[in-house]
From TrEMBL:
<protein>
    <submittedName>
        <fullName>Transposase</fullName>
    </submittedName>
</protein>
<dbReference type="InterPro" id="IPR036397">
    <property type="entry name" value="RNaseH_sf"/>
</dbReference>
<dbReference type="GO" id="GO:0003676">
    <property type="term" value="F:nucleic acid binding"/>
</dbReference>
<dbReference type="InterPro" id="IPR052709">
    <property type="entry name" value="Transposase-MT_Hybrid"/>
</dbReference>
Length: 290
């Protein structure tokens, strides 16, 4: 339509004639008379472009190198982060973040491709250990776990001495994050996730071995909380100590018998020596008589 108006302006036609021609050809789709007059004026003043001029004061795009780098860094730190979380963290709209991810970073969802190429992992032998939080015990949660074939177990109520998070994990996080201040909850969450990823698999395995020891101590203490307390020795420990004491007594008795035998032998030797002396004296007396 602008091209037609431009050609008619070069032919010297008036605004009214151009508008009437457009109405005849385009009907209701034709531009208004005022708009046609404005375009005719611009073309007569020498405008060649058919596009609108950029409006002064138009807001600049929020997408820049700094924004792209920040979003990329957040994604690399947490590959499971949601677009809404990136939007809140960087102060951008959902659409801006999504455009940055798909057009500037060229990232796409790969979950479906991974599911096609990766063999299925059996969950029949997976045991999920839960704390007694409301969302964990919700019917929707337990039903979903059963559908996935995942077995789950709950912590005993009021038993922080048996929960790995209470007796191990939380103390580690507090030590590592001590002295640091966070202005936003998103920054705190990012720091916690970073620290959790530095913990090695062997550390988690060691914690569950320690948990087995704690379960045994809980049984020995008849279900009482034993954290910070010296537990009484178990029956097996008492039997072992009694057997050791009995062995020591037997060794002492044997040593006493040996000492007694040695004493008796010494007395016998002394008596034999005395008898030998008496015989020598008798022999000497007999010689003198002769």
């Amino acid at each position: 339509m602008r091209f037609y108006i431009s050609m008619r302006c070069k032919l010297g036609e008036s605004e009214k004639l151009i508008h009437e021609t457009l109405q005849t050809v385009c009907g209701d789709c034709a531009c208004s008379y005022q708009t046609g007059c404005r375009w005719v004026k611009e073309f007569n003043e020498g405008k060649e472009s058919l596009s609108d001029c950029p409006c002064p004061g138009q807001p600049k795009s929020c997408v820049n190198e700094q924004t792209i780098a920040s979003i990329k860094e957040d994604i690399e730190e947490d590959l499971h982060i949601f677009v809404r979380e990136l939007s809140d963290t960087n102060g951008l709209s959902y659409g801006t973040v999504h455009t940055t991810i798909t057009e500037h970073l060229r990232m796409k969802k790969v979950k479906s491709k991974i599911n096609e190429q990766r063999p299925k992992v059996s969950t029949s032998r997976t045991l999920l250990l839960h704390v007694n939080a409301g969302p964990h015990k919700a019917r929707a949660t337990t039903q979903s776990l059963r559908e996935l074939g995942i077995q789950f177990a709950f912590h005993l109520a009021y038993s922080p001495d048996l929960a790995a998070c209470d007796f191990w994990l939380f103390s580690i996080l507090k030590d590592r994050l001590a002295g640091r201040k966070f202005d936003r909850i998103q920054d705190l969450a990012k720091a916690v996730n970073s620290e959790l990823r530095t913990i090695q698999e062997e550390d988690y395995q060691g914690v569950f071995r320690k948990r087995q020891i704690r379960l045994k101590r809980c049984i020995e203490s008849h279900g009482e909380c034993f954290e910070g307390l010296k537990t009484s020795p178990s029956a097996s420990d008492k039997l072992r100590d009694a057997a050791s004491a009995s062995d020591n007594l037997l060794d002492a008795a044997s040593a006493s018998d040996n000492l007694l035998d040695t004493t008796l032998t010494s007395d016998n030797l002394r008596d034999a020596a005395s008898a030998s002396d008496n015989l020598l004296d008798a022999a000497s007396a007999s010689g003198n008589l002769h």
